Amino acid sequence: EEEKENGGMEAWERAYADERSWEALQEDESGRLRPIDTKTLVHAQYRRRLLAASRIQKGLIRYLYVVIDLSRAASETDFRPSRMVVVAKCVEAFIREFFDQNPLSHIGMVTIKDGVAQRLTELGGSPDSQIKSLFGKLECSGDASLQNALELVHGYLSQIPSYGHREVLILYSALNTCDPGDIMETVQQCKKAKIRCSVIGLSAEIYICNHLCEETGGSYTVALDESHFKELLLEHAPPPPAIAEYATANLIKMGFPQRGAEGVISICSCHKEAKVGGGYTCPRCKARVCELPTECRICGLTLVSSPHLARSYHHLFPVTPFNEVSSMPTKWSQKLSQTCYGCQQSLVTRGGKSDPHVSCPKCNQHFCLDCDIYIHESLHNCPGCESQ
């Protein structure tokens, strides 16, 4: 009965599965153990991301293929319960964050196993359909072939219009690659087609992955644990800096379709079948599509909605990074703001010192660390500046 309760795990496995609680402690000045201040650590990571993303041109219309390694190496259990399960769970969070940050972009998925690369989903703008397809095909077997994956993705991304930023994100578990030909030629083909390739490794650093990222302008990182892997993955959600030689200005024709009336039967151009109600009507050819953003299958017009354009605006004109305000004695803190301008929580501790917080350089209003993250990553407007 005890084995059943613990899932049949050994004693050392149960201790490891307990999230290694000793790592959540640190020693203070007097030698006593206390919990780690995770709030300050999270804010420090956020500040690094914010300061790294300075005012640079970004690729707002992205066409990204996520290549997932489902070879035999993905069944390893160094990530609990396995690499495959951890990757699938983190990819789900990444897809939702990707569409939140890139409403005009498209994403597709490719799997590699048994030495073969297969396209799991086409490039599309629906997170739910992508996630549903991913969890329906989770099986590990055989070896991984990096060359086959790159050639498959190159064939699809080379047809993307010049205004689209072509990207590949490879989640690689294996320590080798079983290729049918010269992979160096494939790397040069991707470089010539202006495809930015990035790799996140789950085992150890591999030379060919590093070479691929250096040649195509991508990034290569290796995850230490599950939380680090998720952090590395989510760093690819915001639009990356546009490479100077690829960043050419283009005018793009877009259509803003109207939503179809409920109860009307029409043939869907996406699924080639009759559907009742809903959907959107292309303003040029009057064809019906199910979801936005997409390209009309009949006339090729890019179809978006006005909220998609509005949500892309903050990447062009981001909120100015706030200045950090250090803790001060009581006589100084009384002159400053006593509460957060956003959530109205007190910024002064019981000892008379002010909590670590930030201030807007334009309106000089003070905000707590949580509001700082919320304003820059979700709201994209400063409440103090807007109220003026």
From TrEMBL:
A Pfam family annotated for this UniProt entry: C1_4
VWFA domain mapped to chain residues: 63-203
ZnF bounds (C4-type): 282-299
Example GO molecular function: zinc ion binding
Coiled coil: none
The organism's place on the tree of life at top rank: Eukaryota
Keywords, sorted A to Z: DNA damage, DNA repair, Metal-binding, Nucleus, Transcription, Transcription regulation, Zinc, Zinc-finger
Subcellular location: Nucleus
GO CC annotations on file: transcription factor TFIIH core complex; transcription factor TFIIH holo complex
A biological-process GO annotation: DNA-templated transcription
Family: Belongs to the GTF2H2 family.
Protein name: General transcription factor IIH subunit 2
Organism in which the protein naturally occurs: Trachycarpus fortunei (Chinese windmill palm)
